[in-house]
């Protein structure tokens, strides 16, 4: 039996595979009719501990467009680790479905799901959000061209799962990325250690003051309060200087504004930038589906 391929983080995909996924996503987006049989006869379980708009709809519609069938399961229906162990859930799903797309609270849940002998895709966990980063890289290529090593991108705000996956994607494709966060809310030391060990010549730098930010092509942020995290006035106060606003846009020279959504307007980003001429935010959202379709095609068919 062929060992299933997984995407629990971007570390499961080497640089060549990421680049080929992005190229395939462009092809699927341009010519979706050529891929309507990619998942023919395949059923994909969508196991969501966290609610979602973009992730659920983009996966369900994308799987349908590839000729597959999505089965949605939320935490109330399944209760991972409560009604039944994660391993038992995975083993049962493997009897009926061909892959699991999981949006979970803990990365460990994904690792347990991956023991059942079918492919597992991380649709968000506490550490990584690889599908979002694939969509972000696709969007940057559409806006600026295929060679991302000539770009300069800055992420400002909370060093969360989106930030950490973006760091991995940037390092894999040798894209210069400035990560600007308060020291208290920076990315994990483990992620930085992984970058240093895996990508010796990466161009990801950590800063703690927006005033240190040099000229960039794109500005990126995410919500300051992640789903399931208690709202914190203290955290928002720490992060206020890291807001994406017109003053920062003009100072940085950026021509693209990015956000993975959902956005809290007036906190991490202003209405002016969210809805402005430089916003590529809805393109990022649209590209979630195309990037995920490419990833699923790769997991089942390779790059053929």
UniProtKB/TrEMBL annotation:
The keyword Amino-acid biosynthesis does not apply. It catalyses: carbamoyl phosphate + L-ornithine = L-citrulline + phosphate + H(+). Keywords: Transferase. GO terms for molecular function: amino acid binding; ornithine carbamoyltransferase activity. Gene3D superfamilies: Aspartate/ornithine carbamoyltransferase. The keyword Transferase applies. It holds the Pfam family OTCace. Residues 151-298 form the Aspartate/ornithine carbamoyltransferase Asp/Orn-binding domain. Its EC number is 2.1.3.3. Residues 5-142 form the Aspartate/ornithine carbamoyltransferase carbamoyl-P binding domain. Belongs to the aspartate/ornithine carbamoyltransferase superfamily. OTCase family. This is Ornithine carbamoyltransferase. It comes from Aliidiomarina minuta. The gene is argF.
């Amino acid at each position: 039996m062929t060992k299933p391929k997984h995407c629990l983080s971007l570390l499961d995909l080497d640089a060549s595979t990421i680049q080929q996924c992005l190229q395939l996503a462009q092809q699927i987006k341009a010519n979706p009719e050529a891929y309507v049989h990619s998942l023919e006869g395949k059923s994909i379980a969508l196991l969501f501990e966290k609610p979602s708009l973009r992730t659920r709809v983009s996966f369900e519609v994308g799987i349908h467009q590839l000729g597959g069938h999505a089965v949605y399961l939320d935490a109330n229906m399944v209760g991972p680790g409560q009604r039944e162990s994660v391993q038992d859930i995975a083993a049962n799903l493997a009897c009926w479905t061909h892959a699991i797309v999981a949006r979970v609270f803990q990365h460990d849940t994904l690792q347990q799901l991956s023991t059942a002998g079918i492919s597992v895709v991380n649709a968000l966990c506490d550490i990584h959000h690889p599908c979002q980063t694939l969509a972000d890289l696709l969007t940057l290529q559409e806006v600026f061209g295929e060679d991302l090593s000539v770009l300069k991108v800055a992420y400002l705000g909370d060093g969360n799962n989106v930030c950490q996956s973006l760091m991995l994607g940037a390092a894999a494709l040798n894209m210069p990325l400035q990560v600007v966060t308060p020291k208290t809310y920076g990315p994990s030391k483990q992620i930085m250690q992984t970058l240093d060990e895996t990508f010796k010549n990466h161009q990801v730098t950590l800063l703690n003051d927006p005033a240190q930010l040099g000229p960039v092509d794109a500005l990126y942020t995410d919500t300051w309060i992640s789903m399931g995290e208690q709202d914190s006035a203290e955290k928002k106060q720490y992060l206020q200087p890291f807001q994406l606003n017109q003053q920062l846009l003009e100072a940085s020279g950026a021509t693209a504004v990015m956000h993975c959504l959902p956005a809290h307007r007036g906190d991490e980003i202003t209405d002016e930038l969210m809805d402005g001429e430089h916003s590529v935010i809805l393109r990022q959202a649209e590209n979630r589906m195309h990037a995920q379709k490419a990833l699923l095609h790769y997991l089942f068919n390779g790059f053929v």
